Amino acid sequence: MRVGIYPGSFDPVTKGHLDIIRRSAAMVDKLVIGVLNNSKKQPVFSAAERKQMLEMVIADLPNVSVEVFDGLLVDFAKQQDAKIIFRGLRAVTDFEYELQIAQLNRNLNPELDTVFLVTSVEYAYLSSSAVRELASYGGDFSNLVPEQIQTLVEEKYKKKKASN
Ligand code: ADP
Fold first, then answer.
1. Fold that domain 3-125 belongs to in CATH
2. CA dihedral defined by 31, 79, 68, 119, rounded to 10 degrees?
C-alpha cells in the first residue's frame, strides 16, 4: 500500500492546500495530512481546531485522514508507514527552503522521497498568512478558504477582537 503524508501548519487550511490534498490523494492509496504542532510557532488556531477544519474539508475524500504531530517529520513518516512526502510549490521563493528540507529529510531517511506539486495558478498567491491578515482587518477572505470553514474562521477573529 502506497502511503503519502502532506505536512504543514494549515493555520488555517486554504483552497491552495485543498488543491494539493486532492491531487496528492489521487497519487497514493492513503494520504495522511500531518498538522504540525510546533511549540516555537504561535498559531492562531490550536492544533485541534486546525485538524477539525481539515476534517471538514476532506469529508468527500475517503482515502485521506488527518493527524496532529510534533517532532521530526521523518519520525512521523515512519510512524505512518509513509514513503512519500508531498509539498506544494507556489513560487521560486518557496523552492530554496523546500529543497533544503527535502535534502535534509532524505539524508535522515533515504527511503523517503519528497514530491513537489506545482500550485494551480489561481492559488499561487494564496497563503494562510494572507488569510489571517485579511481576517484580522475584517477583509473578505471568502474566496480563499474552503466554504465549509469560512464561518469558523470568522468566529475566531470576532472572538479575538472581543477579547482585545
Ligand atoms: P508550512 O508552515 O509547513 O509552510 P503551510 O500550511 O503554510 O505549512 O503549507 C503546507 C504546504 O502547502 C507547503 O508545502 C506549502 O508550500 C503548500 N502550500 C501552501 N499554500 C499553497 C498554495 N496556495 N498552493 C499550493 N501549495 C501551497
1. Rossmann fold (3.40.50)
2. -40
pLDDT tens per residue across span 57-77: 999 999 999 999 999 999 999
What is the residue whose three cell numbers read 500500500?
1
CA–centroid distance, 17 to ligand 1, in Å, is: 6
Q: Rounded to the nearest whole angstrom, what is the distance from the C-alpha of residue 125 to the centroid of ligand 1?
A: 11
Nearest to 148 by CA among 15, 2, 7, 4: 15
Query: What are the residue ranges spanned by the domains of the chain?
Result: 3-125
pLDDT tens digit sequence for 100-158: 999 999 999 999 999 999 999 999 999 999 999 999 999 999 999 999 999 999 999 98
Residues enclosing ligand 1, CB less than 6 A? Answer: 8-10, 14, 16-17, 20, 87-88, 90, 94, 119, 123, 126-128
